[in-house]
Automatic annotation (TrEMBL):
GO terms for molecular function: L-isoleucine-2-oxoglutarate transaminase activity; L-leucine-2-oxoglutarate transaminase activity; L-valine-2-oxoglutarate transaminase activity. This is Branched-chain-amino-acid aminotransferase. The lineage of its organism: Eukaryota, Fungi, Dikarya, Basidiomycota, Agaricomycotina. Keywords: Amino-acid biosynthesis, Aminotransferase, Branched-chain amino acid biosynthesis, Pyridoxal phosphate, Transferase. It holds the Pfam family Aminotran_4. It comes from Kwoniella heveanensis BCC8398. It catalyses: L-isoleucine + 2-oxoglutarate = (S)-3-methyl-2-oxopentanoate + L-glutamate; L-leucine + 2-oxoglutarate = 4-methyl-2-oxopentanoate + L-glutamate; L-valine + 2-oxoglutarate = 3-methyl-2-oxobutanoate + L-glutamate.
Amino acid sequence: MATTLSLRSAARLAARAAAPRASGPRPAIVRPAVVFQNQIRGYKKAAQPMRDVMTGEIIQMPDIDASLVEVTKTNSPKDKLPPSKLRFGHTFTDHMLTIPWSSSSGWGTPEIKPYAKLELDPSSTVFHYAFCLFEGMKAYRNEDGTVRLFRPDMNMARMNRSASRIALPQFDGKQLEELIKKLVVLDSEWIPKEKGYSLYIRPTLIGTQNALGVNPSSDALLFVICSPVGPYYASGFKPVQLLATTKFVRAAPGGTGGYKLGANYAPGVVPQAEAAKEGYSQNLWLLGEEHALTEVGTMNLFVAFKKPDGSVELVTPPLDDVVLPGVTRDSALQLARAHESGELVIPGLPEKMTVSERKLIMADLVEAEKNGTLLEVFGTGTAAIVSAVDKIGYEGRDINIPTGPDGLGAIAKGILDRITAIQTGEIEHPWSVIANGSKA
């Protein structure tokens, strides 16, 4: 008579078969549940909790495991727009990555599947209490087919840091990086071949618990979508104009300004609209009675001053907990410091230069403009990489800043050119990570 084995019975048989044969009584063998799941035919492969070998008690929930990814390719590929028609963040590739998480079972099975709408309960915590964080990354494709990511480890580390700040789950960044590589390679044909184009990557983590109440979310969803984008300055460099606002505050000590949370961005829309009414592109965010400089729009800030001895000081405000630790900011700092030390020479950067992370106040810029020592002001970020500033409105007047004949100062252009060369593989560098293993 045929007998159907239960999962538990089949697991016991698997354990017995795997046990070494020896004379005398055979000791009991306890193996992690994940082994049994993957050995039994017909059951879906999935990450399982790690259990104590003696008690069977769960001691660690499953982390993200890239080897378990399930890939479903679309049967209806989208039509690709000509590169000249692309608008930032309006066109998305054929596929997306999703990974669910639960406090009771840990990270679930990663899925790369056709791009589609999410199904969320109206009570999901993301809608009510802003349990949301995200990252911004880019992938580049060379003429030989090589697909590259720029410093993805930095994005993974920052994403985990943001998750810890709003009680969302953390994860193995290397595993998510591998999954993003798979997604990007699958949709690599969406990366335009023209120079200056790239694939913008948006990893996002949201709380999805179906219940109201300000508590840690018991459920979450990590997803990644991609969008082909063109060069930020399609028709040449265009300096931006800033309004140094004393009416609005982006972040305060002890708050969340140093984390890439969705809640940090919506409150900046009204201040930006008010700046636009006065003829400015973005806000320059100030803090405290001294009007300390923090960020420019949604970018990190750099200011170059000429010193009495003829050298140049490149300054950026310290991170503390009000400034976002930008990946491009860190890259610009490392490159400038390497130039400062003589480790490498970056064209455009002055021979004698010091690099500082220190407090800057508006009085510093006002005085530097008066005495002619204000050389450059620029922002750094994923989208534009470097964005020059030519005017800052402050207390009823404009501070004018040199930008050079091409709309970009020599220091800003030198840093932009070096980072771009690394991102595209023109200059081989550990920051440029090949996603498709080898050149295709």
